[in-house]
Amino acid sequence: MKLQILFLLSLASTANASWSKNLNYRSPSEHHPSLGVSISRVVKRNDPSSSYDAAALNFTHGVASGDPYPTSVILWTRVAPESENSNSNVTVSGYAPLFDHANERYVSVSKSPICVEYKVTSDKALSAMVDSGKVYTSSDVDFTVKVEAQNLKAFTTYYYQFAVCNSDNKSPTGRTKTTPKPDDDVTEVSLAVYSCANYPFGFFNAYGNIVRKDSVDYVVFLGDYIYEYKNGYYGWGDALARIPLPNKEIFSLYDYRKRLATYRTDLDLVASHQQFPWIVSHIRKLPPVWDDHEVADNVYRDGAAELNNTEDSFLKDGGISVDQRKMNAVRAYFEWMPIRQVDMDDNLRVWRSFSIGKLIDLVMLDTRNYDRSITDLYWNTDYINQIANDGGRSLMGSRQENWMYRTLSESAKRGATWRVIGSQIVFSHISREALDQSGGNGLNLDAWDGYQSNKNRTLHHLYSNNINNNIFLAGDSHASWVSDLIWLDKIDYDSATGAGSIGVEFAGSAVSSPSPYGENITLATANKYSSIIEGSNDELHWQDLFYRGYFELHFTKDKVNANFFGIPDIRKKNGWEIPLANFTVENGANRLKRPVAGGVVESGSLKFGKMVQNNLTLDTSNGKWFDSSSV
Ligand SMILES: *[C@@H]1O[C@H](CO)[C@@H](O)[C@H](O)[C@H]1NC(C)=O
Ligand SMILES: *[C@@H]1O[C@H](CO)[C@@H](O)[C@H](O)[C@H]1NC(C)=O
Ligand SMILES: *[C@@H]1O[C@H](CO)[C@@H](O)[C@H](O)[C@H]1NC(C)=O
Ligand SMILES: *[C@@H]1O[C@H](CO)[C@@H](O)[C@H](O)[C@H]1NC(C)=O
Ligand SMILES: *[C@@H]1O[C@H](CO)[C@@H](O)[C@H](O)[C@H]1NC(C)=O
Ligand SMILES: *[C@@H]1O[C@H](CO)[C@@H](O)[C@H](O)[C@H]1NC(C)=O
Ligand SMILES: *[C@@H]1O[C@H](CO)[C@@H](O)[C@H](O)[C@H]1NC(C)=O
C-alpha cells in the first residue's frame, strides 16, 4: 500500500491522472470482476524512473466514440510505443506482464504508464471546452484508452481530442453526438445500419461512404465486426494485401486484440469511428450487438459449430476452454470498442434498449450468444429441420424473451413513435423450396425460422397488444431482404395492399462478406435467384443477393425512409455506391408504403414492380455521378 502511495506521489508531472477513469482497466462486466485488471498490481510493477519519450508514442488507430447517452458519450483511442499488440493475459493473474517483443520475453518491471489527456469541446477548433481529464494507459489494456465524456447536452454534436500529457503529440480530432432525452420531441433522426465486415474479402468502403456524405446521426452495428478465421478459410486476402492477423484462427487475448487491430487499419472503418458515435446502448450493457463471429461461428449457449454438444468438447477449443475463449473475445472487444461496462448479470448478456427521444425506442437483442437452444451446426441440419417447430425452443432464452415483450409494451405505453428491433438474424420466413430451387445453402435455419415458437410468441405479443410501428432490423445473411412483418398462416395477409401486417423488416447486406450464393456470382444469376426467392414468399417485397452494402433509416414522426446502397467494387478502396432501392413506412400503417419502392429498383427482385438497371453510381468522395458498369 505504502509503495503505491509513494509511487503515485512520484508522478508529480502527471498529477491528477486517473487509472480507474480509463474504463478499460475495469471488467467488461460488473459481475465478472476477474476480467478486470488489478490496478494496484500494475502500479506496483511499473518502474517510475523509466518513462516513455512522448515523441516516440503513436496514436496507432485513430479515435472512436460510442454508446451515446443524453449527457455523456464514450471516447476511445490507443496510444502505444509500437503498433504491435500486447501479449499480456489479464485473466491469468489479474494483471499482465509486459511482453518485450525485441527480446521475446515477458518482463516483470515495465516503464511507467502513459499519461493521456483528453478534451471535449463544442466547436471544431477545439477551443470551447466542455469536459477534460487525464488518465493512464499501459500494456495491461493493450495501450487502449476509454473515457466517458460527461456534462454534455442532449442531441448535440461535440468534438474531442487526446494528447500525450504535456506534449504536442496529439490524436486526430473526433466528432460525436449525444442522444436526445427520452422525452424530447425530436423531429428527425437518421441511422446507418451495418453488419458483416470480413477483412480479407474486401475494403470497408461502405463504412466510409456515410462519412463522405455526412448523411446520418449514428451508426448501428448488427454483428460480425470481425471474423475469427485464418486467411484462406473464409476470405482470401492475398490479392488485396488484406491478411487477417494473426494469420490463424484466433483464441487467446492477444489473438483477439491483434485481429481487432488489423481490422481497424481499414481507413474507412477508422473514419466512421472518428465521425460517428457507434450505437449503442442505453444502460451499461456490452457490446453493440454482437453476432457470432466475434466469438466463433454459429455460437449457441452450449458451444459453437466446430464443437459438439458434449462436455468433453467444451473443455478444449484451440487449447483453451470455450469459456476462456469467450472471455478473451469479450475482454479484447471491450478494450477496442467505444462501449460501456455492462451489467452482465449472467451469461455475458448484451441485450438492452435505447431511447432516442420520443421518436424511437431501439431494442437490441442478443440472438446469438445469450441463451439459445441448439442451432444448425452444419452436420445436424436435418435434425434442426425436424425440431424447428418445437414449442420449447428459444432463440433468446426466456429471460431475454420476457424482457423484450415487456420493453415493447412499455415503449408503446410511453408513446415512442417507432419501435426498432435490432436482431442479428433475419426474422421473416424464407421458403425452403425457393432456397432449394435457387441452390441456396441453408440460409435460414440459423435464423428465426429455426425457432418458430419464439417467433410465434413475438408476433402474438405484437398483435394481441396492438403494438404498432415495429421495424425489425437484421444483418447476418449477407443479402438484402425487405418484408412486411406478418404472422404467416395465422393472420390473413394481402400482399398487394399489406393488410394484416404488423410492421416491416429491413435486413441489410454485408459490408464485405460475400453473397450466400458465392463471392463471384454474376449480377444476372443473382437476380434470377432473387426472383425465385421473392416470388415464393408473399410478404417478401424486395430481395437482392448481388450487392455488398448497407442501409440508412431516416425517421420523422410521419414516416421512416429506408435507403439501400450497393457497393459496386470492394476489391479496391473507393467511395462508390449505387442507390439500390428506397422504401417508406408511414406512421400507423404497419406495412411498406405502396407502390413498394415506388415500383422500381436498381437490382434484385421487386414484387409488383420492375428492376431497371441504370448503373448510376455516386462517387461519395466528390459528389459526382457516373456509370460504374463502364469502369
Ligand atoms: C509512429 O508514427 C511515425 C509516423 O507515422 C512512424 O514513423 C513511427 O515509426 C511510428 N512509431 C512507432 C513506434 O510505431
Ligand atoms: C497468454 O496466452 C497465450 C495463448 O493462450 C499463451 O501462449 C501465452 O503464453 C500466455 N501468456 C502469459 C503471460 O501467460
Ligand atoms: C460432431 O458430431 C458429428 C456427428 O456425430 C460428427 O460428424 C463430427 O465429426 C463431430 N465433430 C467434432 C468436432 O467432434
Ligand atoms: C407457429 O405458428 C404457426 C402458424 O404461423 C403454426 O403453424 C406453428 O405450428 C406454430 N408453432 C409453434 C411452435 O407455436
Ligand atoms: C473470385 O474471384 C477472385 C478474383 O478473380 C478470385 O481471386 C477468387 O478466388 C474467386 N473466388 C472464388 C470463391 O472462386
Ligand atoms: C433512392 O433515393 C435516392 C435519393 O436518396 C435517389 O438518388 C435514387 O435514385 C433512388 N433510387 C431508386 C432506385 O429509386
Ligand atoms: C447497366 O449495366 C449492365 C451490365 O453491364 C448492362 O447490361 C445494362 O445495359 C446497363 N444499363 C444501362 C442503362 O446502360
UniProtKB/TrEMBL annotation:
Keywords: Signal. Residues 191-564 form the PhoD-like phosphatase metallophosphatase domain. It comes from the Eukaryota. Pfam families: PhoD, PhoD_N. Residues 61-178 form the Phospholipase D N-terminal domain. The keyword Signal applies. The keyword DNA damage does not apply. Residues 1-17 form the signal peptide. Gene3D superfamilies: PhoD-like phosphatase, Purple acid phosphatase-like, N-terminal. This is Phosphodiesterase/alkaline phosphatase D. The lineage of its organism: Eukaryota, Fungi, Dikarya, Ascomycota, Pezizomycotina.
